[in-house]
Amino acid sequence: MRIATLRHAALCSLILLLAACSSPPPRKSAAVRPDRTIALSGIKADGAGREILMYTLGMLDLNYRFGGNNPEAGLDCSGMVSYIYRNAVGISLPHNAAQIATLARPVSTSGMQVGDLVFFNTLGRSFSHMGIYIGDGKFVHAPRTNSSIRVDRLDNSYFAARFEGARTLFD
Q: Residues 8, 12, 21, 77: which is the catalytic one?
């Protein structure tokens, strides 16, 4: 519990820093390619969306781990979403993207809000990958083994071709 409290405090500091600066802070890793950098300025959220956004940004750069369901060991895509929703807004979700999709209602791409869920067909089956929409056409996800949680764009050619839609758990 202490790690989650420290992570939350660090995340709050990061949000305040992003709000005060005109550009995002430098990335932690020098190995990040310049074409992977995605600016986070201009992203705004209220209420539950703000809480989800804060927890989501706190997950950036954490390790991917297939079947992972906590930040210390690593997270996969549905483990990340389940962890964030449980801690940010108290909603318990299964650790399975397809099952989470059945619990949420579809929302149009133009109607997406920060904190909504985005789904992809990356394994030849519906809802095999997911992430959390953070606004401005961007989402956070845990992509694959030997990677870390990161921000990508929905219009990225790989994800745009596999996008199955957005869903929400809110009214």
A: 77
Predicted confidence at residue 4, as pLDDT, reads 54
Asked whether 114 and 52 are in contact (CB, 8 A), the reply is yes
Task: Write out the DSSP string of 60-128.
Answer: TTPBB-TT-EETTTEE-HHHHHHHHHHHHH-----S-HHHHHHHSEEE-GGG--TT-EEEE--SSSTT-
- Let me know if 95 is a catalytic residue: no
pLDDT for 7 equals: 56
Residue written as token pair 């202490």? 2
For residue range 63-75, list pLDDT tens digits in order. Answer: 999 999 999 999 9
Task: Give kind and range of the element (H or E) at residue 164.
Answer: strand 163-168
- pLDDT above 90 as % of the chain: 72
Q: How far apart are CA 154 and CA 142, in angstroms?
A: 14
> Known catalytic residue: 129?
yes
Catalytic residue check, 12: no
Catalytic residue among 12, 21, 95, 141: 141
- Give CATH superfamily name and number for 2-20+45-168: endopeptidase domain like (from Nostoc punctiforme) (3.90.1720.10)
